[in-house]
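Researcher: Sequence recovery benchmark, item below. Answer with residues only.
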């Protein structure tokens, strides 16, 4: 297949692109290499992809309407994996317009491309942030997601609604994946594992919010990418048992699905820090801080629907994943 992967120089996008190439697909990657975090890291992720004969990188943002329309018309994709987005909960308080440009306008260009070019299946990144103020654990796709706590979360819920509209009106199979705290080698510098490892190795204090009373469904990147590709290979279909008088939030009369994609179990933040200490051989100095605006205390994914429909089975515990990241970090940065 010829597959468009947006955000192909990103953490999840680069790994997804590589595995699609490994199995024989042709991949067109799209990324704008912006400076939300160090572009050099994105360039390093993209370098091995650029050397592959079945890979092409297009340097452009998804919000470029004319450019995206031309790309879809020229390349004739079979399927699309849309991972490009303005990420980060806290940054959405500082630069809200970036989230509308990338996550709303950018997603609309993807939907329009799929509409006009008979795309077999669109898989796109949503987020566990859509659960917002929901305190019922584990989070289920059948839970309501009507109370987002950040603009980032609101844009991701908007993506799910926009996808449903296009699936309903135009019959485009779409699958949204609500990612839960992805970590691993080549990860993003704004994520906890990266920041904590960097601080511990530099002998700096760790900023630990909510006084460390967080838990997260930390999910290793290879498990996430396996789920992305399994989802891509199973185009969404209408739910034949869908009851419009009592609609369930995770399925539809249209070829539309949303799934949680996570490890399927929470890890206490303090245990996560202990694993980093063990892997680095250093003791962390903690700066305990209050809860940040837009943050949530706990996340935990119910992944039963994804497991049933695709065979998804995450297999990497944090006791294995954290040391792998620390080893990569030390190698990449010479730390």
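Model:
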């Amino acid at each position: 297949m010829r597959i468009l992967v947006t955000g192909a120089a990103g953490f999840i996008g680069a790994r997804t692109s590589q595995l699609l190439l490994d199995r024989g697909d042709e991949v067109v990657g799209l990324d704008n290499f912006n400076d939300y975090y160090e572009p050099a890291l994105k360039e390093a992720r993209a370098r091995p992809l650029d050397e592959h004969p079945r890979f092409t990188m297009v340097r452009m943002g998804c919000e470029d309407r004319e450019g995206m329309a031309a790309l879809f018309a020229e390349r004739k994709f079979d399927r699309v994996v849309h991972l490009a987005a303005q990420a980060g909960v806290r940054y959405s308080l500082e630069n809200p317009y970036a989230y509308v440009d990338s996550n709303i306008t950018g997603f609309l260009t993807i939907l329009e491309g799929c509409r006009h070019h008979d795309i077999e299946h669109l898989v796109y990144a949503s987020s566990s942030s859509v659960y917002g103020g929901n305190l019922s654990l584990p989070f289920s796709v059948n839970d309501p997601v009507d109370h987002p706590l950040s603009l980032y979360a609101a844009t991701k819920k908007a993506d799910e609604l926009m996808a449903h509209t296009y699936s309903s009106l135009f019959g485009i199979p779409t699958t949204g994946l609500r990612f839960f705290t992805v970590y691993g080698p080549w990860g993003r510098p704004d994520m906890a594992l990266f920041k904590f490892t960097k601080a511990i190795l530099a002998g700096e204090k760790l900023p630990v919010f909510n006084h460390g009373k967080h838990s997260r469904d930390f999910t290793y990147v290879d498990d996430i990418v396996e789920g992305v590709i399994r989802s891509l290979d199973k185009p969404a279909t209408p739910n034949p048992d869908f009851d419009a008088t009592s609609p369930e939030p995770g399925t539809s009369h249209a070829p539309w699905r949303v799934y949680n994609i996570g490890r399927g179990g929470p890890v206490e933040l303090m245990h996560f820090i202990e694993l980093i200490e063990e892997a680095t051989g250093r003791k962390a100095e903690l700066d305990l801080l209050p809860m940040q605006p837009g943050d949530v205390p706990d996340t935990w994914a119910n992944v039963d629907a994804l497991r049933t429909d695709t065979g998804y089975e995450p297999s990497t515990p944090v006791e294995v994943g954290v040391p792998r990241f620390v080893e990569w970090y030390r190698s990449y940065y010479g730390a």
